[in-house]
Amino acid sequence: MPDIKVMHYGLGPIGAAIVKQVAARPGFKIVGAIDIDPAKVGRDVGDVVGLPRRVGAKVSDDAAKALKSAKPDIVVLCTSSSIKKVMPQIETVLNAKTPIVSTTEELAYPGYTHIRLARQIHALAKKKKVAVLGTGVNPGFAMDTLPIALTAVCERVDRVVVNRVQDARIRRLPFQQKIGAGLTTEQFQKKVDDGSVRHVGLTESIAMIADALGWTLDRITDDIQPKLASVTIWRRTSDRRRRTIRWTSRDRRTCRCASTAGSTGTSRRRRSSSIRSRRCSRRRPASIRCATCRCRRSSRGGSNFRRRAALSGPPRRG
């Protein structure tokens, strides 16, 4: 049986991870990729995503031309969470008579929130005689397909509760931005109000479960509340030119420095034993900067001091 020819549409963090999975599995052949990033266009797909070998297929920014040239058996679409944003891309692929598997969250079960677009996709797919599938870990499995499958052994289902907990620290940057990580309470609420921070796909998962169980829903509500950090979070950054390492506070409302006034009026700052205090009036090359009071820290230890700071982690409370 010949290998399935795959074309990847979108080489962001998710798209690149899927490329690695497809490249590692037998029965698939990567014949091309599409991405609008100029830094990726014209390069081998393997080089772009970090594979140990080249796959012999280059990245193109012209979807119609790439589809016509490579003639893939299927397109893996990983460009956006919004069905409205991917609609032109879906139309381009379907016009090439190529089936689609997409990670677009709103495409997992679009008949509830995007009825008009869902009907357009359905009509065009039927006309071109190809399939369109929206799937993923969530939505597509964890909070909908899996609960539906578990109800198969139940005589009666009165309620379905799904709790999903994630550690956003190890997730990709676009995901952290999508959930509002690192924002103040006011910034978070502003993004919730304009719709840029939300649980994409939650409505689709609820609608899928309700339809599978034969339930008629009165409404679906999505209540979003921020989870505030109980401690100050520090971010490590480096300056290669000066070879320094800084720990910057992400919470600018608090300061790990304790300010005290000396007898002569000179401002002093206290830190833990791993970082020596110095008067702010002394102008020296900074290795540690406080994000709140903007004071600078230095040490006679030079690079040894900076290495100790890097090994000991962010300063602890004294």
Concise structural overview:
The chain is built from ten helices and twelve strands.
Q: Could you characterize what this model shows?
A:
- The N and C termini lie far apart (67 Å).
- This protein is α/β, with parallel strands linked by helices and 318 residues long.
- Mean pLDDT is 79; it is low at 240-314.
- 26% of the residues are buried.
- The chain is 30% helix and 15% strand.
- It folds into three domains: 4-134, Rossmann fold (3-Layer(aba) Sandwich); 145-213, no CATH class; 234-312, no CATH class.
- The strands form four sheets. It has a six-stranded parallel sheet with strand order 3-2-1-4-5-6, with helices on both faces. Strands 7-8 form a two-stranded antiparallel sheet. A two-stranded antiparallel ribbon has the order 9-10.
- Strand 4, helix 4 and strand 5 (100-102) form a beta-alpha-beta unit.
Enter the CATH topology name of the largest domain.
Rossmann fold
Order of helices and strands: EHEHEHEHEHEHHHHEEEEEEH
Radius of gyration: 26 Å
**Given this structure, which CATH class of the largest domain is correct?**
Alpha Beta
Overall mean pLDDT score?
A: 79
Number of domains: 3
Total number of strands: 12
Shape summary: globular
- Note the beta-strand portion: 15-25%
Spatial arrangement of strands, main beta sheet? 3-2-1-4-5-6
Structural class determined from secondary elements: alpha/beta
Low confidence ranges: 240-314
Largest sheet: 6 strands, parallel
Estimate the helix proportion, in percent.
25-40%
The CATH architecture designation of the largest domain is: 3-Layer(aba) Sandwich
